[in-house]
Amino acid sequence: MSGGVEQANASSSGWLKSGYGSAEIGLTAVEVMLQVYLLELYVSAGLNPIWAGGALAIAVIWDAVSDPVMGVVSDRTRSISSRGKRLPYMALGVPLVAVAFVFLYSPSEGTDELALFGRLLVWYLVLNTGMTLVIVPYLSLINDLAKGTADRAGFFGWRLFFSGAGLIVGLSIPAVLASRAASGSSDSDTAFLLANRSEAATWIAIVCSLATLLAMGLVWKRSGRAKALVLSEKGPSFFRMGRSAWRSRAFRYILLAFVFISLGRAVNASLALIFYKGTLRFSDEQVAVALIGLSLTVMAATPIWVGLARRFGKRRLSVGGSGVLAVLTAVAYPLMPPEAIGPVVFVVVAGGGAASSVVLLEALFSDVVEEDGRRLQQSLTGSYYGLWRMATKIARAGGLAVSGLFLGVIGYEKGNAEQAEGVLRSVAWAFGPGVAVFFGIGTWLLWREWRRNEDGIEGEVKL
């Protein structure tokens, strides 16, 4: 927290906010490769989709458990400044992320299933450990640096803006490398696919390292001046803190809403390539263009949501944005005919605009963190964000496991570019109404929290 005092009308400089958010270029590019390409890569290499989903789920669960531990460690680090509590862990995680990411995306052709399973599991575990070292302290910096509620929304806005840029990087690098490859290769060529993903991972690892180190350098001075409370070693245990956080109705509803939305996003991302390339018969380049268009829409819409929130409130707009996304997802995708460009353009624009409202949900959670920390006079930023990351990653693990199991049940043939028509229609229904169910539950939880907030109902947080 910034000295533990809320300064509602104060604002940090645009340079600081944008400098902080610039790390998202690399971090999001890594996440995009993981969500969109990882399951496809190992299934194409010969790993059974059920085993692939299981390995991904185990690794993400480990990542989820390590997040709150990292949060407590960061909060209990004996330093009077935010710099000393956050940046050393980020510096430790950057090289770990880069190395693990490159090895994760370099499976060899002809490797047996057991070796593929082991490679996927081990390197994903290492990668997630490095990501924990970077992301939990990175998220905690917002409450340390920001000067108030509106200022925090600005930090989250810049994060989402650069996250859109990272999405473009993560999608365009594999596509650009594929287009520059020697003629004669095709999307169904396994050797070509493995080589493409390996080279793309190397470049994205470089981008991630440089972007994160740049952001650390740009917040170095301010984080050294930002005072940070310390979570006393004699303070509440990790389990007591988790129970106390759960007693906060705002924490509970916002967290659960984000969990269900994350479940939907995980299923959506893991089935995206199969839907676009199989059901819609798009090429790799067309898929990249569609998803890059989605990213540009998110980047353009983010400042609009932040500006509207100052007038209409974050809670109301969060409900509206996620509700529109749920309805659009349920209706649009099952009705899209193959090779249809117009409907995809419509979904990219409308869906991207609605999806960008997630910036308000993250800002709402940040407000809860700040209020509980001031009330208890404890540094809870790292601990709460660790719990947030744990819950959402468990949701992501569940989404990945569900996707792998779903593909196995419907008869998806691993390593085969041509799938049965019934399989592709099943994917379309899962990609649309199936994902919309999770978005709908998240919207309902946000609506409940909004109504409770308007009625003045809130839980007292006690340790």
At a glance:
This protein is mostly helical.
Q: Gyration radius, to the nearest Å? A: 21 Å
> Structural class of the helices, strands and pairings?
mainly alpha
Coarse shape: globular
Tally of helical segments: 15
**Main beta sheet:** none
**Multimeric status of the protein:** single chain
Total strands: the figure is 0
CATH hierarchy: architecture = Up-down Bundle
Termini distance?
18 Å
The proportion of residues in beta strands is: under 5%
Q: CATH superfamily, called what?
A: MFS general substrate transporter like domains
Q: Tell me the CATH topology.
A: Growth Hormone, Chain: A
The helix/strand order is: HHHHHHHHHHHHHHH
How many domain regions?
Answer: 1
CATH class: Mainly Alpha
List keywords for this structure.
80% helix, mainly alpha, disordered N terminus, 463 residues, 15 helices, Growth Hormone, Chain: A
Q: What does this molecule look like?
A:
The protein has 463 residues and is mainly α. It has a single domain, classed as Growth Hormone, Chain: A, CATH 1.20.1250.20. The protein is 80% helix and 0% strand. The radius of gyration is 21 Å and the shape is globular. The protein starts with 13 loop residues before the first helix and ends in a 9-residue tail after the last helix. The relative contact order is 0.17. The N terminus and C terminus are likely disordered.
